[in-house]
Design a protein that fits this description.
By secondary structure, the chain is α/β, with parallel strands linked by helices. It has eight helices and nine strands. 34% of the residues lie in helices and 29% in strands.
Length: 229
């Protein structure tokens, strides 16, 4: 998944990981979290085959497709992109169970695609939290949701906003429950803005924990190499 999804990932990982595998992709606005995940899922499906599902809570499908194509990412036909924007307009957000709706959607495509369903992206968890009441019951349901995702045997990427002084557990226990945490960032070097990626946690595989510089290449986001102080 990682090695076939993003160019230069072999600089970071010794080898690839096997599903089920749940990755938390965090970072501040503008750090290209969505672009990184879209690069990963599109290239992997194009190279390895299979079906993928990308759920966006805040952005429309048309907007996401437009921004994705502007980066040179070719969207495979086997990638289904769906958005929750119409659901958000349909009534009280407090009454809408977004986690339940997402589970039903995954179950639908799992039944339809079977083992061909390989990858799922949720963009973003923070948006769901902003639309619901975050309490102990919600944290328990999030634990159950993560368990459900693993049971599907998928590569899962969950995007969420996170600032430099914020811990990875965020509103709940996401940082503890995830198999991997990738932190996207924005650095200022010699008067220029440099976008970065850093592995904070990655189970089951040897990996670099150095901050890596990233850029937009011919097939989306690619890793250039370590960013030294």
């Amino acid at each position: 998944m990682f090695l076939t999804g993003v160019a230069g990932m072999n600089r970071v990982l010794e080898r690839d990981v096997e599903p089920p595998y749940l990755t938390l992709v965090t970072g501040p606005p503008g750090s290209m979290k969505s672009s990184f995940c879209m690069t990963m899922i599109s290239n992997h499906l194009a190279n390895q085959g299979g079906f993928g599902l990308y759920c966006t809570v805040e952005e429309t499908v048309a907007s996401l497709q437009k921004s994705t194509r502007s980066l040179g990412i070719r969207l495979p036909r086997s990638l289904q992109i769906t958005d929750f924007t119409e659901l958000r307009k349909g009534g009280s957000n407090q009454d809408m169970d977004y986690l339940k709706f997402t589970r039903k959607m995954i179950e639908h495509f799992k039944k339809k695609q079977g083992d061909n369903f390989r990858v799922f992206v949720l963009d973003s968890l923070g948006a769901i939290y902003s639309l619901t009441t975050v309490d102990e019951e919600m944290r328990k349901r999030m634990f159950d949701f993560f368990d459900f995702l693993r049971e599907q045997g998928l590569y899962t990427f969950i995007i969420t906003e996170r600032y430099s002084d914020q811990q990875a557990e965020l509103e709940g226990n996401e940082g503890f429950l995830a198999d991997a945490i990738l932190n996207m960032g924005v650095d200022l070097r010699n008067g220029q803005i440099v976008r970065t990626l850093q592995v904070e946690k990655m189970r089951h595989v040897r990996h670099s924990m150095e901050k890596q510089a990233i850029q937009v290449g011919q097939t989306g986001i690619e890793i250039i190499g370590p960013l030294f102080d």
